[in-house]
Write a structure and sequence with these properties.
The chain is an alpha/beta fold. It has two domains: 156 residues, Ribonuclease H-like superfamily/Ribonuclease H (Nucleotidyltransferase, domain 5); 47 residues. Helices cover 48% and strands 15% of the residues. A five-stranded mixed beta sheet has the order 3-2-1-4-5. A hairpin with an 8-residue loop joins strand 1 and strand 2. Helix 2 packs across helix 6. The longest helix is centred in the C-terminal third of the chain and has 25 residues.
Length: 227
């Protein structure tokens, strides 16, 4: 039965998006953003658009403005936790669904609204099933071009900025620049890490289920420890 609302819901909607899904090094970040219904043009003037079409420095700049002025949530799943969850779920889309649901729930703790828009990354039911009491009353819209929605575009900016920050911290902690993506440069950096620190370091900095892991271990002549 739908929860009775004591007050009218806020006018606007939530958008969610993720970053780090295709990056071997670093965390998976899922962000949520609440867009009041009269703020889309303000965000456009600020330069908000899909983070894939925005430079890294601009993402970082815009994210600070968004965090200061709007309701939002950022869910960060570091490499070690990511690998632990992936081992349990064995499905990236289920992991994404859990993260998107948490971002929506966290925003609903501070603002009541009736709609959330996400990218179409898997079965809509996975996100709905991951939502808890507050989220069960929301209309969930999945759209294969969701980044055209300004709330989703803002969430993509927040997610990418957080990913970039955490990847930078991870690079400093390991004394080696960890590149974005899953290119040959990424593979070369991973081989250097394994040769220097041993194969177990990969579980602390990278997403182990990527095929990159096998190539890196072959090149380094190493094996991951069992268990």
């Amino acid at each position: 039965m739908e929860q009775e609302r004591l007050f009218p819901p806020a006018k606007g909607h939530i958008g969610t998006d993720e970053s780090g899904k295709g990056d071997y090094f670093g965390p998976l970040i899922i962000a949520g953003f609440f867009l009041p219904e009269d703020q889309a043009d303000v965000l456009r003037e600020l330069g908000v658009k899909d983070s894939k079409r925005t430079s890294d420095n601009r993402c970082l700049e815009i994210a600070e403005v968004l965090k200061a002025g709007y309701k939002h949530a950022v869910i960060a799943i570091g490499p070690e936790k990511y690998n632990e969850l992936y081992d349990k779920l064995r499905n990236l889309n289920r992991l994404l669904a859990w993260g998107h649901a948490r971002a929506i729930e966290n925003i609903l703790e501070v603002v009541d609204c009736v709609q959330a828009v996400t990218d179409q990354f898997g079965d809509k039911a996975w996100v709905l099933n991951a939502l808890m009491k507050k989220g069960r009353t929301i209309e969930l819209v999945q759209n294969p071009r969701a980044e055209e929605d300004m709330a989703v575009a803002a969430a993509s900016i927040l997610a990418r900025a957080e990913f970039l920050k955490r990847l930078s911290f991870l690079s400093k902690d390991n004394g080696l620049e960890l590149p974005k993506g899953a290119s040959s440069m990424v593979e070369d950096a991973a081989v250097k890490l394994v040769e220097r620190d041993g194969p177990e370091v990969l579980g602390k900095v990278a997403k182990l289920h990527f095929k990159t892991t096998g190539r890196v271990l072959d090149r380094a002549g190493a094996k991951l420890p069992k268990g």
